[in-house]
Undecaprenyl-diphosphatase (Agrobacterium albertimagni AOL15), 268 residues
Amino acid sequence: MEDQSIISALVLGLIEGLTEFVPVSSTAHVLLAGHFLGFESPGNTFAVLIQLGAILAILSVYFAKLLGIALSLPTSAESRRFVGAVLLGFLPAAVIGVVAHDFIKTVLFETPMLICVVLILGGFVLLWIDRLPLKPKYHDVTEYPLSLALKIGFCQCLAMIPGTSRSGATIVGALLLGADKRSAAEFSFFLAMPTMLGAFTLDLYKNRNALTVDDTMIIAIGFVAAFVSALFVVRGLLNFISKRGYAPFAWWRIAIGTLGILGLLLVG
């Protein structure tokens, strides 16, 4: 295991944690950074498997709330509806992820120019959303109707295209469907748990024979780095979005997409 690989894994893990829950596409950032760092992973598993570190960050921050929901399931209709809403929102991505897994990993993940273009387009979408005079009618994620959760789940499927952003697709979908900014981001957190756990399990199974001991160690380094950096983001993101909206993330996407295109044209 080379020192350069360890450093690259650490950097990419930090990038994953910092970008997973903001609408800038962590996968795009990890894939583009990996491309320019010369980092290679069998079947592009690294970018998917280290996402579980970010999921553990959510679990640690929301542990008390999740435990309360779990304990109240037998007696609380509200808790059962919330869990049902999250699982229903996860269903479309689960189906499409299984069916299109190989195409996503071997074609879309291997097209950095597409990733850059989608980053820029997504930035303009966020700017448009941030300026719409929306009048939200849903303010609490535990009160989202099942139909709303399913529609947000279909929006999440757009994130199969790297550069779209899973959190960005779900947040934009939720906002257009009547959610306020804070609850839209929070529902995206909860929806990430089954979605990313499912992606982790499927990718690990598909590439179980391709991973070496060194690959496992590199992934573990990225995993820990993603967990630590994601903790800081999850703790402060909701308040930031409530005050500043999504325009800062939009301009970031446009800047990174533009720099990525320039880099690809200059160095390939």
